[in-house]
Recover the amino acids of this structure.
């Protein structure tokens, strides 16, 4: 199976499942089904993958590309189209990163809901607040820019936001 | 004549009694006692077994499906075989930390071996593409700048009148032949 994510970076909170307190002698059907699934599906698939990986031998490596920071659109002189281009590319990369951040937060909330079951509304408060905050921030920055959204339009949206704030105050 | 009518009635009676057993068929056409029956003598070439099944043509449908299957498999099977071999024998790459003072080649940023091969063989590195785009932008900026300058210079030269662009060259006065106007009586 492909490896799970790094548990140091995205830590899994301690499990809150209660200890097993079996009061009947009847077998647990959930346990039976899970064992059945394990032996009929999981074990064959994992052995197959193990065989294939044994055939493959030494694998090549791939790396994570890191980009340097360049001056943003606000730090460019007027008419300096090269600076505009670099700032635009940087803005696009940052947009993609922000989309992935929202996905991660969303996945955390879904994992929390899956773990807690029916009591998720009480137990998942931190995740819920974080998700709320992150999505509101994303919406205020990137929403409604349209299909041709660019760093310039985002900057104009920020200007409108700041103007609205000063008018409210 | 009377005997003929007796024979005729006898033949008619016999035909009525047993319509299947006809002794002489031709006489029944003259008397009006031809008994109609659904059984007709048909000649099968296959000893009584019915062989010619009449149905609408399946030729065009069969031909279409045959051709479709063949053409799909001519490219499909080699591509599927290549992809299976690559996935089984070469395998995907593993993520690793970039070592210090090592600049990975541009294809080493991809995971699947076929993507890496395509990036290595056909595509320019994204850094090169970026620089190409920046070069185009630079050229266009310079062009726009020069056009602006030209318009400005034209305006100034036309206004002041001392710029070289708006000097109209006149002839050298030594070349003018003044002989037609040199005396008043010419």
């Amino acid at each position: 199976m492909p490896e799970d994510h790094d548990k140091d970076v995205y830590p899994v909170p301690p499990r809150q499942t209660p200890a097993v307190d079996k009061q009947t002698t009847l077998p647990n059907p959930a346990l039976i089904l899970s064992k059945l699934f394990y032996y009929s599906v999981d074990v064959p698939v994992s052995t197959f993958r193990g065989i294939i990986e044994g055939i493959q031998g030494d694998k090549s490596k791939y790396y994570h590309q890191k980009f340097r920071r360049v001056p943003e659109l606000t730090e460019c002189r007027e008419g300096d189209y090269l600076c505009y281009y670099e700032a635009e590319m940087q803005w696009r990369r940052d947009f993609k990163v922000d989309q992935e951040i929202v996905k991660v937060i969303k996945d955390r909330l879904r994992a929390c809901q899956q773990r807690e079951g029916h009591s998720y509304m009480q137990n998942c408060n931190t995740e819920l607040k974080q998700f709320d905050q992150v999505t509101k921030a994303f919406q205020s920055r990137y929403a409604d820019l349209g299909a041709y959204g660019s760093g310039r339009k985002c900057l104009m949206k920020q200007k409108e936001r700041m103007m609205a704030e000063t008018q409210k105050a | 004549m009377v005997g003929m009518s007796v024979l005729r009635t006898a033949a008619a009676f016999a035909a009525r009694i047993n319509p299947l057993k006809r002794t002489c068929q031709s006489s029944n056409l003259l008397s009006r006692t031809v008994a109609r029956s659904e059984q007709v003598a048909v000649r099968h070439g296959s000893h009584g077994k019915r062989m010619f099944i009449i149905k609408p043509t399946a030729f065009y449908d069969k031909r279409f499906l045959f051709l479709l299957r063949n053409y799909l498999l001519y490219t499909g099977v080699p591509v599927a075989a290549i992809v299976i071999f690559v996935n089984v024998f070469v395998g995907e790459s593993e993520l690793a930390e970039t070592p210090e003072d090592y600049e990975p080649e541009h294809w080493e940023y991809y995971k699947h071996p076929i993507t890496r091969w395509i990036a290595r063989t056909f595509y320019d590195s994204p850094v090169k593409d970026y620089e190409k785009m920046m070069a185009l932008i630079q050229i266009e900026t310079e062009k726009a700048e020069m056009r602006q300058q030209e318009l400005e210079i034209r305006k100034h030269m036309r206004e002041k009148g001392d710029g070289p662009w708006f000097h109209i060259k006149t002839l050298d006065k030594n070349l003018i032949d003044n002989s037609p106007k040199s005396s008043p009586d010419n």
Notes: The mean pLDDT of chain B is 86. Chain B touches chain A through 25 residues (CB under 8 Å). The radius of gyration of chain B is 54 Å.
